[in-house]
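So, can you check this one?
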Amino acid sequence: MARILAQLPKGSRISDYISLGVIAKTFPPRKIQAVLRATGKASQRQRDLPAQVVVYYVIALSLYMQSSYREVLRCLLEGLQWLAEPGVKLRVAGHSGISQARTRLGASALRQLHDEVVQPIARAASKGAWYRQWRLVSVDGSTLDIADEKRNAAKYGRPGASRGRSAYPQLRFVSLVEAGTHVLFGTRMGAYGSSEIALAQEVLPHLRKGMLCLADRNFFGYPLWGQARASGADLLWRIKKNLMLPCQKRLPDGSYLSRIYPSRRDRRRGANAVPVRVIAYRLEGLPDSEPVYRLLTTILDHEKAPAEELAALYQERWEMETALDELKTHLRGARIVLRSKTPELVEQEFYGLTFKVTPATLIPRGDSETIVSAALECASDARRVLDMGTGSGALLLAFLSECRGADGIGIDASADALAVAEVNAERLGLRACASFRHASWHDAGWAAGLGRFDLVLCNPPYVELDAALDPDVRRFEPASALFAGPEGLDDYRAIIPQLGGLLSPGGAAVLEIGASQDRAVAGLAEAAGFAVTLHRDLAGRPRALVLR
């Protein structure tokens, strides 16, 4: 019933899939304009590719790395015409024009936009994001392949190997990652040979009081520890086995209090001591594990954070590895390198890439994102959600990613679509709260046993039989998921009368509509006893109706 798939069919264009609304929602035009002014990169005259459009373009490049420069730009401009000055038509530039526009923009605006906008997003109900009162974050680093160009190789370098140099130059980066949501923030990059400790010094100022920061043993050293501690965050870092810390006081949970010092001289003099707590433990049954693992923490009160819990919590540091896998494999794509051919554009592309490592990027169409926004506005406290015609699961999973305390069910008449939705839920870490069911609202008894819901989402077929469609839409999308009778209203006539039996008291339904269908669908809903509120998309067109 959904009109879209989660994956691009062979030969299709990305114009039907590119996610513009979520980009504009996360990075509003006003914010981008402010950053451009602050960095001196605002367009002084109206160009074919104004600076604000180029910012969105760089982010879109990172989302669709397997598509060409021109294809991404063409699709982007179809949805961003509203960013231009009145009467100015944005044009698809050639490769040279795109490169010139990106060069004018540079990297500073993207880097500042990243720092200002990309922040932890976990809410109180977000699963896996908290330990007691602390927000969990990790610090770690990795590398990314970049285009094999002389200037890139000279700037960033490449790893050596016993059989010769690497095929691609690489950049190194260090980032903070929020557990549960996998949002990378405070990210900094450098050449392949850059020290992760040096990069971490630029990253750690993004720590805040109320966070608990986890780190591997390679990061431990008094200067970095002291810098992280000064942020007000609490720390849980692994330390190297050769660092011996004497026991000052044994605690009931098996941990002990000790001290660390800024320098050997301070240690000899007993000056400037910093109290710490040490947790030592063994991993049983793992033949390759080290005899003893030791963690250092700023949380001195064992009752606030027992040693056994902190030892188990340290595995959350591997959330970083999961996030990096999403960035390097799922988002980027296997064996695909950052495509920019100059060092400055590599940096620009990198900061565009790190924007989008969140479940919110799943939504395939900007128009449909209005549904998610409307749902969050009217039912952010929903605990049971039904997505009718779930297709790829995009709407349901996008909502659940924002409201981690909710559970959802997606139904669809297509078994193939449900298989895609299941894969997407698994990849996004939402499998525990999202389930799917093969069902059609046209079949009698399809809702038996489902119960009632606080929120119902639905993006049904609504295209008129004689509508003029893009040839690619007709070619690649099934007619059953597009057309809904002569007026495009047949499915609304089937769905709306059933909502009363699906909604809990005080619940809401959010329906996507065609741009000219607001009055007709609202009339059907009001006749069924619903109060109706209209929501418009980013272009100002009618796009969603909220029924209560």
